[in-house]
Amino acid sequence: MEIELVLEQINKKFDDGSLILEDINLRLQQGTKLSVLGPSGSGKTTLLRLIAGLENPDSGTILFKGQPMNDIPPHKRNFGLMFQEFALFPHLNVFNNIAFGLKMKGKSKTEINSQVNEMLLLTGLDGFQTRHIDDLSGGERQRVALARTLAPQPRLLMLDEPLSSLDRVLRKRLLIDLTDIISRLNIITIFVTHDHEEAFATGNMVIVMNQGRIEQKGCPGELVQTPKNQWVKEFLGL
Ligand SMILES: Nc1ncnc2c1ncn2[C@@H]1O[C@H](COP(=O)(O)OP(=O)(O)O)[C@@H](O)[C@H]1O
Ligand SMILES: [Mg+2]
Known about the structure:
Layout: E1 3-13, E2 19-29, E3 33-37, H1 44-52, E4 59-64, E5 67-68, H2 74-77, E6 79-82, H3 94-104, H4 109-122, H5 138-150, E7 156-160, H6 168-183, E8 188-193, H7 196-202, E9 205-210, E10 213-218, H8 220-225, H9 230-235
Parallel strand pairs: 3-8, 3-9, 6-7, 7-8
Antiparallel strand pairs: 1-2, 1-4, 4-5, 9-10
Helix pairs in contact: 3-4, 3-5, 4-5
Residues 44-45, 160 line the site of magnesium ion.
């Protein structure tokens, strides 16, 4: 299958000089479900922000379908990024939250209606069109956020710890829902988490990050069977 996303020798330092990301290399095939697993501060969010174009690497190249992304601004990359806090618009109803990106793109009313309805079905929110964000449960909000991110039909989807603000019981259930929705998308999905159970449930490929470096890369089975070193072993709770 075609290699779609390539990260080549990416390095990123912040002003204080601490090295945040060091020599990141990745090649992902179309449809790959990648989990980025690592403790807090290991550089996971920074990696997503670089792919999204919200930060620039100091050196290295990001390619999508062979095209260098370095000089392409975030809104022209057509990548979807969903943050931990969802960042929904509280004054808009469910329909208008999901429609937001499509309106920004100047889509017609007919297109918006049909796309939003498709997203409502995909995320199990049919019938919620006119509900207000304040009246939704945590799980429902998360679905709205996902529907909003997917509505403009991104070429790549990134989720930054999408479950971490929810309580344990809800998290387990939503992980199943989310994994199911993601598995139906034929685009690369990058799921960031500090929880190895979440990483293994959502990803067919996992990178384990530690202090800005990729410590190990592999499918869940490989990581569990042959953790590369003591640190990975301990981090995976083995
Ligand atoms: N804009 C920034 N300026 C300086 N340091 C930053 C900035 N963003 C992140 N960092 C630092 O980079 C490290 C990695 O952060 P981050 O990518 O958010 O990690 P994670 O998402 O894995 O918790 C942290 O030590 C953080 O303090
Ligand atoms: Mg983070």
